[in-house]
Write a structure and sequence with these properties.
Layout: H1 2-10, E1 22-23, E2 30-31, H2 38-44, E3 48-53, E4 56-64, E5 68-73, E6 80-82, E7 112-121, E8 131-136, E9 139-144, E10 150-156, E11 158-165, E12 172-178, E13 182-183, E14 187-189, H3 202-211, H4 235-243, E15 251-252
Helix pairs in contact: 1-2, 3-4
The chain binds calcium ion (3 copies).
Residues 165-167, 169, 171, 193, 196 line the site of one calcium ion.
């Protein structure tokens, strides 16, 4: 990325004000405003940006297309390397400052850490199908547990809200601060939310009650009443629902 430094020097861009026209200091040739002189384009190829900001100007090149930029802005003291997109109206000069002769490589993606654990699905021998969600701001990471309840997911360091949930069951929630590979405490998600609306109440009770004694294949059999998924609605489903009656999600992890 020497090219952008050469181009800036050649066109004396360090004066900082958007010029009346671009003048080639070597041969006096002028280029119209609004686009860089062809010789700048020749140096930088297509990997450049050029922008007028009020009366100031900014020029940049890509270290890595759309990931890392080598930027000169008239409001900044020198070339800097940044991962923030310079194609905006304001620019933060306090990003990392680098020697314009030796641009550094773009930063590596953040390290991730393996978080794992076990989730028991109350009343079932097969625990498969719980979705475990790690949320930090707008970043979300998912894992689905196995038949024996195990899950694992790789997430960057940070503070996460962790939720485990599945159909017919209430979600459980906890919080974790991830700084290394780690294991979350085991938890149990509670069954009986036949209509999966986040609370176990008389609606669920009625759904199970009205299907009581039915099994897979029977006419009118409502799958939602079979909480433990053993293909029949019986005392086991009723006990699951009854034991959790009145609870609202998220339950404590
Ligand atoms: Ca649920
Ligand atoms: Ca419900
Ligand atoms: Ca059942």
């Amino acid at each position: 990325m020497r090219g952008i430094a050469d181009a800036a020097q050649k066109y004396n861009l360090q004066y900082g004000k958007y010029p009346d026209s671009f003048v080639d200091l070597e041969n006096g040739a002028q280029s119209p405003l609004g686009k860089p002189p062809s010789s700048v384009v020749n140096i930088l190829g297509n990997n450049y940006g050029f922008k007028k900001i009020n009366e100031n100007m900014r020029v940049w090149g890509y270290l890595e297309k759309e990931k890392a930029y080598y930027v000169w802005d008239s409001a900044c003291p020198q070339f800097i390397i940044t991962t923030s997109d310079p194609n905006g109206d304001t620019f933060d000069c306090t990003h990392e400052i680098a020697d314009d002769e030796t641009p550094v490589a773009p930063p590596p993606p953040p390290a991730t850490y393996k978080i794992s654990g076990y989730i028991d699905v109350q009343g079932r021998s097969d625990d498969k199908g719980v979705t475990v969600t790690f949320r930090q701001g707008s970043d979300t990471y998912f894992a689905v547990n196995s038949s024996w309840g195990h899950y694992e997911v790789n997430v960057p360091a940070g503070t996460y809200t962790v939720t485990a949930d599945m159909n017919l069951y209430l979600s459980a929630q906890t919080f974790t601060n991830v700084t290394a590979d780690s294991t979350l405490p085991n938890t149990v998600i509670r069954g009986g939310d036949a209509n999966d609306d986040g609370k176990i109440d008389s609606i669920d009770q009625n759904l199970i009650g009205s299907n009581f004694g039915k099994k897979c294949g029977d006419s009118g059999f409502d799958l939602r009443a079979d909480i433990n998924k053993d293909c029949m609605v019986d005392i086991l489903d009723l006990v699951l629902m009854g034991g959790n009656f009145g609870l609202t999600q998220p339950t404590t992890w």
